[in-house]
């Protein structure tokens, strides 16, 4: 049985099998993850008589301490793939891959040999590498979070006894926040003109003309392209539900989408931007590589696809006839404070105030 959501929007498992109660904390981000954990818990109990939601016995703890770092991180990734979002899994996989490339000797060590001093040396080295490459030191903090969590078994419980001491419980690095780079309208136009192929150019036009999140644009279905507007679905929220919002589109964009459907899109395609010979929408890598190429061709500093959403919000805010609550609805924000902060980040309010005084 799945219970929830609680006040934090989390779910838990409460299932009785053969007279034994399998009870988890409220830790699952959506009902689907809780159902997967419930199935795993039931099968493990029936096969091995082990409750995965309870702390393992000392014998189990002892055997796990003989694992290598590589084996632990591989188990952690398997668990994330089964119980967390694809984005969460991909982020951790990226951090662990960079750790393995930079410190291969660490990956072969037994867990009991990873001391706090060794962990500090690795973290310092990772941070220094980030600084040398001109990158944000915040990546070192994210690596520490990923490793702390990997050591904190059992992963299904946020509280309670752990299997082993955690050498990665180090202080976070101080990070200097940089001002967000916001491209000018001229730079965005130059990138749009340089974008190729046609499919990617239309994708950029969609983001710029609707304020869609990059993932919402990539997953747009033809059935959601209506006369004079498109239906965008927000990212999955707690409980696995998605919320639609209808966003008006300009006549030129509507004509471009209609042309793409007639001329360029695959016959019988479900998605507007669909992979070749697959009933699946284009992926994140396709979008990012296209943006990198377009910026290089236009001679413009790279900016993320999310910047088109910022541009859309700023254009709406500059039209005094459009109230803030309408902008909130078009962007798909649940809290109007998110929209307010969004526009402050862009300096829109500052510009309006300067014009007013």
Number of helices: 16
The first-to-last residue Cα distance is: 60 Å
Low-confidence stretches: 56-65
Structural class: mainly alpha
Strand content: 5-15%
Strand order of the largest sheet: 1-2-3
Rg over C-alpha atoms, rounded to the nearest angstrom: 24 Å
Q: H/E series, N to C?
A: EEEHHHHHHHHHHEEEHHHHHH
Q: What report would you give on this structure?
A:
α6 packs antiparallel against α7 (about 140-150) and α8 (about 185-195) crosses α12 (about 285-300). The model is unreliable at about 55-65 (pLDDT under 50). The strands form two sheets. A three-stranded antiparallel beta sheet has the order 1-2-3, covered by helices on one side. Strands 4-5-6 form a three-stranded antiparallel beta sheet, with no helix packed on it. Helices cover about 55% and strands about 5% of the residues. The longest helix is centred in the N-terminal third of the chain and has 18 residues, at about 30-50. It is mainly alpha-helical and about 350 residues long. The protein has 16 helices and six strands. It has helices spanning about 30-50, 60-65, 70-85, 85-100, 105, 115-130, 140-150, 185-195, 200-210, 215-220, 250-265, 285-300, 305-320, 325-330, 335-345, 350-355, and strands at about 1-5, 10-15, 20-25, 225, 230-235, 245-250.
């Amino acid at each position: 049985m799945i219970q929830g959501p609680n006040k934090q929007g989390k779910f838990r498992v409460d299932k009785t099998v053969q007279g034994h109660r399998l009870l988890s904390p409220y830790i699952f981000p959506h009902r689907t993850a809780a159902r997967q954990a419930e199935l795993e818990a039931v099968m493990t109990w029936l096969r091995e008589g082990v409750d995965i939601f309870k702390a393992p016995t000392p014998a189990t703890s002892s055997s796990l301490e003989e694992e290598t770092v590589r084996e632990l991180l591989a188990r952690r990734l398997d668990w994330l793939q089964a119980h967390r979002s694809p984005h969460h899994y991909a982020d951790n996989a990226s951090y662990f891959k960079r750790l393995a490339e930079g410190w291969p000797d660490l990956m072969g060590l037994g867990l009991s040999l990873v001391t706090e001093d060794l962990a500090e040396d690795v973290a310092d080295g990772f941070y220094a590498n980030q600084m040398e490459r001109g990158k944000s030191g915040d990546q070192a903090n994210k690596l520490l979070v990923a490793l702390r969590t990997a050591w904190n078994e059992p992963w299904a419980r946020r509280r309670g006894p752990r299997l082993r001491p955690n050498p990665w419980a180090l202080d976070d690095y101080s990070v200097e926040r940089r001002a967000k780079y916001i491209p000018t309208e001229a730079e965005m136009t130059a990138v749009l003109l340089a974008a190729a192929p046609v499919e990617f150019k239309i994708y950029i036009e969609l983001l710029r003309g609707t304020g869609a999140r990059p993932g919402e644009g990539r997953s747009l279905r033809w059935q959601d392209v209506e006369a004079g507007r498109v239906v965008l679905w927000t990212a999955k929220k707690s409980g696995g539900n998605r919320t639609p919002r209808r966003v008006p589109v300009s006549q030129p964009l509507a004509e471009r989408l209609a042309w793409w459907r007639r001329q360029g899109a695959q016959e019988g395609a479900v998605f507007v931007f669909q992979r070749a010979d697959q009933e699946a929408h284009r992926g994140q890598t396709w979008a990012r590589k296209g943006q990198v190429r377009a910026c290089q061709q236009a001679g413009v500093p790279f900016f993320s696809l999310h910047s088109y959403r910022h541009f859309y919000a700023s254009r709406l805010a500059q039209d005094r006839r459009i109230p803030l609550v309408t902008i909130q609805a078009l962007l798909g924000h649940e809290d109007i404070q998110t929209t307010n902060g969004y526009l402050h980040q862009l300096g829109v309010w500052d510009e309006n105030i300067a014009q007013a005084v």
